[in-house]
Structure formats: C-alpha cells, structure tokens
Amino acid sequence: MVSRTRPDAEILGAAEWHELDLLDREAVGALVHEVGPSAVISTAAVNPGGSGSFDVNTIGAQNLAAACRSRSTRFVHVSSDVVHDGGDRSGNPDAPYHDAARPSPINDYARSKAAGERLVLAAHP
C-alpha cells in the first residue's frame, strides 16, 4: 500500500491518495479499515485488452464493495453505458435507457462491467 500526494492536489484539495491492488482482498479491507471513509466512489476500471481487465472490473469492484459493507461505508460504483447494446426494446437506438433496463453487453469489456455491477450489488446492496 502506497500513500502519496498527487501533483494535481492543489486543484483537488488536500486529498490523500492511496495506490492499491484491488485484487488483493486483504489489502483492500485493510485500507478501508485504516482510512475509515464515510463514502467511497469507485471509478476504477481497466479497458479492454488491458492486463487483468476482467478481474479488476469484476473481482476488484466486488472486493472494494465488500470492504465498504463491512464498515457500513456508503459505496458508489461507477460503471459504464457500454453494458447496453445501443438500442432500447422499442427499436429506437436514440431512446434513453430506463433505470430498470437490463444489461445487454456486446463485447468483453462490456461483459466485465456488467458482471462487476452484479458482484457489487451482491456484495453491498
């Protein structure tokens, strides 16, 4: 676990940043316990073709959600619109998706993000 101040900290305020392997469940839990945040916003993702992209987008997201749940920490998981195929059930590709729209991923990255959503929901409903 590495703690550091980012070069753009003057823009973001006095934030403390931590580098973390999201696939290391114990390290994730330890950091959440150590920092004790009231909320965590997860924007972590590895794009398609990146090393370990499916694992980070699924297991990594699940590990962070589970660690937050164990401390009753509010958790916001940012996913992606790519979990949808670009069309709605009416056949109109420009229609907005509804909150209840079922994911319909069409590539590996989209499948990893959709799977990550399911794992996060199960870990921290």
Overview of the structural elements:
There is one protein chain. The protein has 125 residues and is α+β, with helices and mostly antiparallel strands. It contains four helices and four strands; from the N terminus they run βαβαβαβα. The strands form two sheets. The chain has a two-stranded antiparallel sheet with strand order 1-2. A two-stranded parallel ribbon has the order 3-4. It is globular. Mean pLDDT is 81; it is low at 1-5.
Number of DSSP helical runs = 4
H-E order: EHEHEHEH
Shape: globular
Structural class: alpha+beta
Give start-end ranges of low-pLDDT stretches.
1-5
What is the typical, i.e. mean, pLDDT? 81
| Helix content range | 25-40%
**Overall radius of gyration:** 16 Å
For the largest sheet, list the strands in their spatial order: 1-2
End-to-end gap? 27 Å
Instruction: Summarize the biggest pleated sheet.
Output: 2 strands, antiparallel
Strand content: 5-15%
Per DSSP E runs of 2 or more residues, the count of β-strands stands at: 4
Write a concise synopsis of the structure shown.
The chain has helices spanning 9-12, 25-35, 53-70, 108-123; strands at 2-4, 17-19, 39-42, 74-77.
Question: Would you spell out the secondary-structure blueprint of this structure?
Answer:
Layout: E1 2-4, H1 9-12, E2 17-19, H2 25-35, E3 39-42, H3 53-70, E4 74-77, H4 108-123
Parallel strand pairs: 3-4
Antiparallel strand pairs: 1-2
Primary descriptors:
125 residues; 4 helices; globular; disordered N terminus
